[in-house]
Amino acid sequence: MKNINDLITKDKITSNKTYTLRIGAGSGIDSKGDIPYILELPKWLVERLHEYINSDTWKERARKSYYKDSDENYIFLTRIGSPFYTSKSNMNDIKDSILKENKRIDIQIYKGNAVRKNFDDLVKKIQEDYPWFGNIRFHDLRATFGMNIVINLQSRGINNQKCVDYIRKRMGHKNIQTTWSYLDHKEILAKNIDTQNIFENNLFNFL
């Protein structure tokens, strides 16, 4: 939560109307493999998140959580105050508390099961109206993000090498071959666009 507050307070917006947020090793924000890179968050999204963490809805959930209304708390909490994913820093804080209080307690580690369950329910709902709609995973949204960047850059005449350099920077790829795979998209591009449009339309109706 403190990261969103810091972005709003510092008010450093890029020319693309985004805020930059460092994640990965040394940042206090987990990333896959602790790979450090920079996220670009749209200004409107940061503002909406800032509104949410100051809302009664968030405060009610926060009161039930481990960190209460502290700046260390998560933005996204369940109705019972649990995180959807347990961060490494949260696990360390709990372990430190156990050592200080010298008592044994059960630690519930959350690994995104609730997120995946809701996502799968949404996909099944979409498939009722669109039987051809494939079985996509939550992680596929990240791939869609990468594909959208490719489409945007190539439509502006950016060459492949510059596309790869930019995508790798935005997505934090450790292996450059992973990044190059995003450029081999011509055969599946049209289908991906249809899938994305249908998913987005149903997502907002589902929420």
TrEMBL record:
Keywords: DNA recombination. One of its GO terms (molecular function) is DNA binding. It comes from the Bacteria. One of its GO terms (biological process) is DNA integration. This is Uncharacterized protein.
